[in-house]
Amino acid sequence: MPSSPCGPGCIESIDEVGTGRVIGRLLGVAGLLISFPMVNLVTPQSKREAVQRGYARTLLSCLGMELRVVDRRIDPNGRGVVGEGNTAPAVYGEPGTGVMVVVGHIGWTDIVALAAVQPLGFVARADMVDWPVLGKLATLMRVIPIEREKLRALPGVVAQIGARLTAGDRIAVFPEGTTWCGRAYGSMRPALFQAAVDTDTPVQPVRLRYLDRHGVQCTVPGFVGEDTFASSARRVLRSRGMVAEVVLEAVQQPGTDRRDLARRCEAAVRGTELSRHGLRDATVWIEAGNTRVQDPSIAADTPEVRRPQRRLRPMLRGRGRRVDAVGG
């Protein structure tokens, strides 16, 4: 399984609200989740996207966060901040146009922040549908479940993503394979990018950060270490003045090489930012269930090589000894 070194030591506290405000936020979240299915059902198809975006933004507000969207596709210097009257509302793509949205993964609030820009589907951990609060929302958003410990199921997930992109859906993926604290990050694994290559779908890199009320990057939403949904939600609901900043970087064309596409998107999302924990060891082994395998996507700079299968020569008759294995 992909893993990160982030843990409780990465989470730094910020200003908090009182118990009364936390209860008010919880009631607001509950009201939104109860009313959304019915409102979405009775809303005409042509207006559902606007309603869904409005619900996502209100939910983000109930979590104690403001939304800031920066569209670098329009202004490379990042001066065009949506919501301050400088630009039209930013979107990942026109309705009916397939787009793969690629973003680093910090925590469960990422889904709400991204949907507040424009409704989209997600590739998310399979057990999310069983979570309180977010489970129902994940089902309504037609989340594509992925069980990362089942490596053999990965091609099927890639095929599902490809089918949804071909149908004109916007799908967000988290190629790091796990969550990080926000000040540290991992490598973007190329496997899921194959769906964009197969369907010739443009990829929208997104830089997502959470800032405190003073504009300093904070790690409160990080879902890391031994965090449970309850402990993470409690920390988020108690926070004061957080801002979810969504930066839309230049769109990347898929090309023909998923590894090259992954590198380009990672460069777009990270820029010159340095990870708190430094670079990961390129030779690290990962655990996948009971099988020990080496992550094939880490050595991104080396070409893919198909090696011959290891074969054993038969026992030499009359000798009683075995010749060394050949190949591999």
UniProtKB/TrEMBL annotation:
<keyword id="KW-0808">Transferase</keyword>
<comment type="pathway">
    <text>Lipid metabolism.</text>
</comment>
<dbReference type="InterPro" id="IPR002123">
    <property type="entry name" value="Plipid/glycerol_acylTrfase"/>
</dbReference>
<keyword id="KW-0012">Acyltransferase</keyword>
<keyword id="KW-0443">Lipid metabolism</keyword>
<protein>
    <submittedName>
        <fullName>1-acyl-sn-glycerol-3-phosphate acyltransferase</fullName>
    </submittedName>
</protein>
<feature type="domain" description="Phospholipid/glycerol acyltransferase">
    <location>
        <begin position="99"/>
        <end position="211"/>
    </location>
</feature>
<dbReference type="GO" id="GO:0016746">
    <property type="term" value="F:acyltransferase activity"/>
</dbReference>
<dbReference type="Pfam" id="PF01553">
    <property type="entry name" value="Acyltransferase"/>
</dbReference>
<keyword id="KW-0444">Lipid biosynthesis</keyword>
